[in-house]
Amino acid sequence: MYRQVIGYWDSPRHRLLRIRYQLLGGLAFAVGVPLLLRMAYVPEVLSNSNHQVTVTAAAVAHLTGYAFYRRLGNFPGLAAAGAILPTFALTYGLVFLLIFFFRADYSRFQAGGSFLLSIFWYFGLGFFTSRLEPTRLAVVPGGDVAQVTSIRGVAWRILTTPFPPQERVQGVVADLRADLSVTWERFIADCALSGTPVYHVKQIVESLTGRVAIEHLSENTLGSLNPNQAYLTLKHAIDCIFAVAVLVLLFPFLLLVAALICLETRGPALFLQQRVGFHGKVFTIYKFRTMRAAPVPGADDRERAITADGDPRVTRIGRFLRRTRIDELPQVVNILRGEMSWVGPRPEAVPLSKWYEEKLPFYHYRHIVRPGITGWAQVNQGHVAHVEDVNQKLQYDFYYIKNFSPWLDIVIYIKTVVTLLNGFGAK
User: How far is residue 247's CA from residue 3's CA, in Å, rounded to a whole number?
Assistant: First the structure.
């Protein structure tokens, strides 16, 4: 009954979202079309071993790229279209780099055509699915569900009776901890049995906002905030490899930046500050100096640690370094010392960290992973200092810790590139 009325699984949008339609169609289009075009001019091309290698490599790159693309799409804050190009560029690049490394011959037409058509296929698929049917979610009244309807990007349908809505919906949202009536509980059970997804309100809020509420962390939530130790170790090893590469390749550039800083204003090129990091340990962070070493009259340690909008202490070159985040590059030394990571919660100055711990519950728990040069809060919220904003920042940090994985790190890297281009959050 509910399957027929709600019609979620048989909607045109859902048929296009099924893996077999996306993947088989993508393989046929991205790999098959260049092959057919080539065969139109050279019918015996399939008997050529070089072309066989290229077709196989293109199929592997496409399958891997699709797996990454699907996984990255689960995280909020990254439009599906924004993940297509970097994802397939990465997988195709790695696969054909291996072929080049082993000096195997391949068809440039097949490889390049397959890459471009893969991007075109998933861009087009996303465009048509978004036009076919917007995302609609039905909301069961009762409990703490009012917060979800204010979230943008979803057509919310508040149910008034325990019967399916007349229009198609992609799922049902309910506060599963609320004291619901028997009829509403039966409705929720029937929806789940019919194949319509049922989401707990907290699950939906986290998924759509990219934040984890911290006012009342439950026992289960606290347990899910324990990061994977194996990935924590692997991540640090990868961080160090990239830090060495950056330090070697950019060393002349870093010297040039240091010289420009010293030429503009008197003082050292580097700014050193005590910050709270991994496991709550205090460490010295290294940054390029972007401000004049001028005291702030009547300011305490906490106020001096805060950079305000339009802060007069920021120099001309410092403003550019902050906007492009070049001032953060000396922190590769902190990465090599095991104090920081490329991605993680941003470390705060000691006076600010102590202040936030007094004001915000569970603030200290963010130190369970290494702090980062960039992070989930930075690419979504930017630079903040006031307690109200830091409270939201902490929710972003907890979302990162709860979903601690290479997939989320890739999303952050992609969004960091966008942030560098538009200067979002810089002060």
Answer: 58
237-286 pLDDT, tens digit per residue, is 999 999 999 999 999 999 999 999 999 888 899 999 999 999 999 999 99
Residue whose token pair is 């075109």: 120
Is residue 110 within 8 A of residue 55, CB to CB? The reply is yes
- The DSSP 8-state label assigned to residue 103 in this structure reads T
Q: What is the residue whose two structure tokens read 């902490």?
A: 394
- The backbone torsions φ and ψ at residue 131, rounded to the nearest 5 degrees and listed phi first, read -85, -30
Q: Please answer whether residues 147 and 203 qualify as being in contact, where contact means their C-beta atoms are separated by less than 8 angstroms.
A: no
Domain boundaries, the chain: 2-132, 136-209, 229-422
Tokens of 189: 């059970």
Q: Could you say which DSSP state residue 137 is in?
A: E
Q: What is the pTM of this model?
A: 0.76
End-to-end CA distance of the chain: 56
Quick count: other Cβ atoms within 10 Å of Cβ 106?
Answer: 19
| CB neighbour list of residue 6: distance below 8 Å, 6 or more residues apart | 164, 165, 168, 169, 191, 194, 196
Instruction: List, in order, residues 6 or more apart from 60 with CB less than 8 Å away.
Output: 95
CA angle 203, 209, 215 (to 5 degrees): 70
- Cα dihedral 419→422→424→426 (10° resolution): 100
